[in-house]
Amino acid sequence: MLIKKRHKTKEIKIKNLAIGGNNPIIVQSMCNIKTENTRKLLNQIQRLENAGCEIIRVSVKDENDANALKKITACIKTPIVADIHFDYKLALKSIDAGVAKLRINPGNIGALWKVKEVVKSAKINKVPIRIGVNYGSLEKELVKKIENKKMTVAAAMVESARKEIKYFEKLNFTDIVVSLKTSDIQQTIESYMEFVKHFNYPLHIGITEAGTIKSGLIKSAIGIGYLLMQGIGDTIRVSLTADPVEEVYAAYNILSCLKLRSDLPELVSCPTCGRTEIDLINLANRVEKILYSIKKPIKVAVMGCVVNGPGEARHADIGITGGKGVGLLFKKGEIIKKVKDTEIFDELIKELEQYK
């Protein structure tokens, strides 16, 4: 078996959602609209929810953002995570506003007494905290050790997380999630693999600052995919310089390809060739978009040749193919309906709705 048994982690409750333990690997993303722009933010959150996003993070940069959170959390069922940097008071206000979780960075939250105030409030209000370690904001003393080659990046990342974890534990707070992200695939993988040797807290995985929708998808698929195959990861974010909805689509594609969620569809489509007589690229993209809203373990094929299509995709539960003016609907390689090529997409949707 290529995919290793999942690393057993502590279960953490985030609102009504459970992560870690034996729970499914959860998909999250982050809004890229300033939080104080409430109406625009809520529209983006709705788009993320429609795409299947299960945890949504928002930035809290100032008091205007913190003040907007109360309205946002009142409108949204999906757990909202407040992303906090530098100002511990914003973390306290975010908790008061009803967020489901905090994300803080050990390298920039400030003095320990400030962290203590945040932890105290989080404990009272049952709000978990993600210790989000990023290479770009490691503590200065750790950066110096890396520069002087006294410590590897992975060791420094884990040490940063360890220090924060131990302080949280001294305060009797263990509703902790951890991430250890860099923009380098190997450094990130090494950090997570070192961490799991010592701790069993749930892990949020990803490659930070991965890049655009093209290069970032490749980088994220390699890094996240490798970690998942090692049994590491309880929640994932595919960080892209793109519409956050694309992050959700990409995350589900990774999970689907590795068959790590039992409620996800899978799309197979041929690469096109000179025999293709339908607008296959557009058709495949339309089908893919529809599948993101379907939570069924179904394999769907979109093929471009009426001669070989059904046979090549006989492993698919449902498939469509077409030629000049004609479209075929098939199941397990057997043709069940012949329609006009312009009707084939609608016929597929009907079948998907009825599929059990």
Q: Biggest sheet: strands side by side, in what order?
A: 8-7-6-5-4-3-10-9
CATH superfamily of the largest domain: Dihydropteroate synthase-like
Q: What is the ordering of alpha helices and beta strands?
A: EEEHEHEHEHEHHEHEHEHEHEHEEEH
N-C termini distance: 28 Å
Look at the helices and sheets and give the structural class. alpha/beta
Instruction: Just give the CATH class of the largest domain.
Output: Alpha Beta
Q: How many domains, in number, for the residues?
A: 2
- Biggest pleated-sheet summary: 8 strands, parallel
Helix percent reads: 40-55%
Radius of gyration: 23 Å
DSSP helical segment count: 12
Strand content: 15-25%
- How many strand units? 15
Q: Per CATH, what is the topology of the largest domain?
A: TIM Barrel
Could you tell me the mean pLDDT?
Answer: 91
Unreliable residue stretches:
none
Name the shape in a single word: elongated
Task: Describe this protein's structure.
This protein is an alpha/beta fold and 356 residues long. The protein has two domains: 12-257, TIM Barrel (Alpha-Beta Barrel), CATH 3.20.20.20; 266-354, Sulfite Reductase Hemoprotein, domain 1, CATH 3.30.413. Helix content is 40%, strand content 19%. The protein contains twelve helices and 15 strands. The protein has helices at 38-51, 63-75, 88-96, 112-125, 140-147, 153-170, 185-195, 215-229, 244-257, 280-291, 309-312, 344-354; strands at residues 12-14, 17-19, 26-30, 55-60, 80-84, 101-104, 129-134, 176-181, 204-205, 235-236, 266-269, 299-302, 318-323, 326-331, 334-340. The protein has an eight-stranded parallel sheet. A five-stranded mixed sheet has the order 11-12-13-14-15. Strands 1-2 form a two-stranded antiparallel sheet. Helix 6 (153-170) crosses helix 7. The chain is elongated. 43% of the residues are buried.
